[in-house]
Amino acid sequence: MFGEIIIVGALISFVFFSQHHGEQPAPVEHQAVPQEKVGFNVPDYRYVMSYQGLKPTPKTIKENPPVRVNPCLANSMEINFSLRDYKLSEEQKSSINAFVGKATYCGAKKITISGSASPVGMMRYNKWLSKQRAMAVKKYLDRRGVSIAYQVQIDPQTMISERKASLSFN
Fold first, then answer.
1. Closest by alpha carbon to 30, among 58, 10, 8?
2. In CATH, which superfamily holds the domain spanning 76-169?
3. Residue intervals in the chain for CATH 3.30.1330.60
4. What is the mean pLDDT of the chain?
């Protein structure tokens, strides 16, 4: 009985649709239309359609220019360390180099370095480890001859996932 109701309902809607609406609408085809280049020379593809009756025609939108993001708004970074570790890897040094380049480009007056450790273990050891992490970054900046002033802060106990040194500029 329930199956017969569904079939009858489908037939009624088909008959109603074909009698009152003429033809069925053509399937909509979406085409990617290349826009102006957006950052890093990458084209911005959007699906844009304008409808004339039932047939879509692609159009290009010119009223929405690409958004340019100010790189100086993101003025901090984190360097994560392994448990009980404070030595900088080559990858971490490369990240610091990029950060210092960005700080210089943005006209930073001061870089703040903050070392931290997880709350696991003794307070005295965590304080020492936090200082070692911050000092590792400071010594690396000294060796590079960074001309921006910097300040070292120590936060001996933070959340367990925060075995890091943080850098920020202003």
1. 58
2. OmpA-like domain (3.30.1330.60)
3. 76-169
4. 72
Give the pLDDT of residue 48: 44
pLDDT of residue 41: 52
Q: Of 138 and 22, which is predicted with more confidence?
A: 138
Instruction: Note the pLDDT of residue 90.
Output: 96
Nearest alpha-carbon partner for 27 in 9, 54, 61: 54
DSSP states of 28-68: P---EEEEEEETTTEEEEEE-EEEETTEEEE----SSPPPP
Residue-wise DSSP of the chain = -HHHHHHHHHHHHHHHHHHHS-SPPPPP---EEEEEEETTTEEEEEE-EEEETTEEEE----SSPPPPPPTTS--EEEEE--TT--PPPHHHHHHHHHHHHHHHHTT-SEEEEEEE--SSS-HHHHHHHHHHHHHHHHHHHHHHT--SEEEEEEE----TT--EEEEEE-
pTM metric for this prediction: 0.56
